[in-house]
Amino acid sequence: MSITVDLSGRTALITGASSGLGARFGRILAANGARVALGARRKDRLEALAAQIGSNASAIAMDVAREADVIAGFDAAQAAFGTVDTVIANAGIDGAGLMTEMSEEEIERTLAINLKGAILTAREGAKRMMAAGITNGRIVLVASITAFEPAPGLVAYAASKAGVVQAARSMAREWARKGICVNTISPGYIRTAINDEWFDTEPGRKQIARFPRKRLMEESGLDGPVLFLCSDAAEFVTGADFVLDDGQTL
Question: Which SMART domains match (predicted)?
Fold first, then answer.
């Protein structure tokens, strides 16, 4: 099913856009009229995606765990399309592994990309919106159902996503009078490059069988809510978390 929302005139920066959900977000925002700056570390993949989308897309190399990269990414987006008024902080890694076996470096990297990176991205976007006098800014951070559901084997990931939800609520309150709406989406399990191998294993298939609808979500299941949260129609929605999980947590 195709969902249409008018995003004409909007300039969006999307992190983690080289594959998976980020690439999907880039395509659907552009298809609905937005100019999209596609940010990630793998610029070759970004350039291929930008070429598919067309002239309203630009590839930007950035590592969200590094403040200098985030600032440079927004600089590049602004040079290409003007001030960013829409941000999707999507970059993330799963940090999978039993907690007793994870190294300090693995824990730190998961938190740096998933939590610190989301905060740095949202903060830089908000600073520029405020400086430009934008009063209809939209910031969407991608969390997860593991933010509030126990997730053995994903402890650092779950902690980072819980932090994303609370950071977003706090930023929403802090920037409420600036006209910037900050929200999170908490997707359920979707087959992506991060988890593809797991769901082909016997334990992975058993996990799917335990879901009420006995299936994984499709990426397209996030299209409508994301488009809405990036649009003018979301003027009165801020500090909210949208659980989009096909009933997996029921």
Answer: PKS_KR
